[in-house]
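In the laboratory, one determines a bound structure by crystallizing the protein with its ligand and collecting diffraction data. In a computational setting the workflow is compressed into a single prediction: the sequence and the ligand go in, and a structural description comes out. We illustrate the idea with iron/sulfur cluster.
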Amino acid sequence: MANEEYKWFLRDEVVDAGLCTFCGACAAVCPNDRIEFREDGPALKEECPRNGQGACKDVCQRVVTFASKIGPNIFGFKAKPPALLGQYETLVAARATDPAIQEAGQDGGAVTALLSYCMDNGLIDGVIATGDAGKPSSRVVRSKDELLDSAGSKYSAIPVLSAIKDAGDITNAAVVGLPCHVYGIRKTQFFPGMTSHGFEVGENGEKIKVPNIAYVIGLFCTENFNYDKLAEFMKEKGVAISDVRRAVIHLDELVVTTDSDSYEFDLNELWNAGCVQEGCVICRDAVSKLSDISAGFMGSGKGWTTLMGRTAKGVELIQAAEKAGYLETKPDVDLHRIEEFAGLKMQRFKWELKRRLDEGKKVKFYWASDYPGVMGET
Ligand code: SF4
Ligand code: SF4
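The predicted complex, in structure-token form:
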């Protein structure tokens, strides 16, 4: 039977409506392993015993983010009202002290240094992140060698959270992802409290096993690309995507590096060529507001990463990693640049929301009007 013939709420309301972010949460929580990822998004590979309305519907952040409920869970009594950059306690520019991590990681390797500190000190025994120098995929990283191997941004839409299915042996995990991954993991993490029932029991009588989510490190994000469309675009420019070792968005360019050269692609051209994921066009969070620590190049100079310590444990982790010599920090961060970058993304979201509503397209009401909202409370 073709996938289209199976009943599935998320296909009808999220994927076919161009809202899916490829976060992977739906696939991660399906106890019957019915959801697979295809080029155009997640799909049911067999009929769902829950009539297509099980745990996947409950964790999808494009149905509703539940951010206003999640906030108190992670910020406790310090939870503040919605703000453009979300709430944070510390703001620093940081980089790894280890030259090997600096070289392998993104913008000075601060995120890799934080994760190294966590691994060395037994705070985590696995990281759910992206991996592979070739076609990027989600993976569970279990050692420091693998950590270096998976360091750096990937810039294609990857269902990072689907790797939770492979993390059954992990006790304490860190998740590194984009803002949409952060919403997805937070909904999964606080799942029983977010819905009227707990995790769904599968046909084998078992529930899925989610490791304790010790840390969520959220990356800054403007948009992401469809891997196949990006590959085609690059091929036309004479670059094989399989040769790309590193990809970085800097201002209005995607800069990719191969073993022998570096290439700059204009972001407008990538947008016009349809390389940007449809779900990204209507995304409103640039800075991973629900993470423990947000990280990105915006606001810091070359070779440094901006770190926003948001939760108490996020702030403590930055301080501890610095004290232990894994990280060096300085206070020079251009906050205005970050606000400008986040403001532009929110503006784009509002335009796109209006455009879709004007054209009578489906947009989930509870998601669109959910905290941090679209009614000026940015
Ligand atoms: S947004 Fe995430 S949870 Fe929702 S359908 Fe897409 S991949 Fe699944
Ligand atoms: S723009 Fe939004 S939806 Fe797209 S990858 Fe970034 S955080 Fe996810």
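Residues 36 and 43 are 6 Å apart (CA to CA). Keep in mind that any predicted model is a hypothesis to be tested, not a measurement.
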